Sequence to fold (174 residues):
Amino acid sequence: QAYNKITKVRGRVEGTIVSQKERDKLVAKAEEILGNERYGWKANIDGFCIQLFTNSEHLYEFWIENWFSMDANVRSHGRIYAVMADSTIPPHAYYNPETKTAIVFNTEYYGQIKSWALGITCDIAEDQHDIHSIHGSCIEVEGKGIVLIAPTGTGKSTCLLYTSPSPRDRTRYR
Fold:
């Protein structure tokens, strides 16, 4: 199913690390806005349960299309509140590392929600399992792996796309 939507905010919004006390206030505000009109779904990301709470059908549909579901009985390891509110609340993202909670106001840009989900997963893996993640793009050439590590939006995947073997030769590298 093709599902396209032009969102008001078309890129990432600024993010801030907050204390647990500030997180609690932001979650209370998000819960107040969400009320009973919300979507919720637990995603299984590399065995970690990341739960989304949102009032955006757009974000919810992308979320369930992009992740495998986690059993409803599994307790969340991390949470994301993605809340569309009135214009008095500026588009902004907040994160509390102690509770692994992100609160994002007034953006339906799914790329940022996906990035927060992956970031929370990496945060949990590092804190609880001593697993360290990288942000990169990979390619195999003649049996050897190459990884480009760089910030989001710098063209890692594009660069590797244009340096990969021709479609005829790709079957040798699988």
User: Anything to note?
Assistant: Helices lie at 20-34, 57-66, 110-129, 156-163, 167-170. The first helix runs from residue 20 to 34. The beta strands are 15-17, 39-45, 48-54, 68-69, 78-83, 92-96, 101-105, 136-141, 144-149.
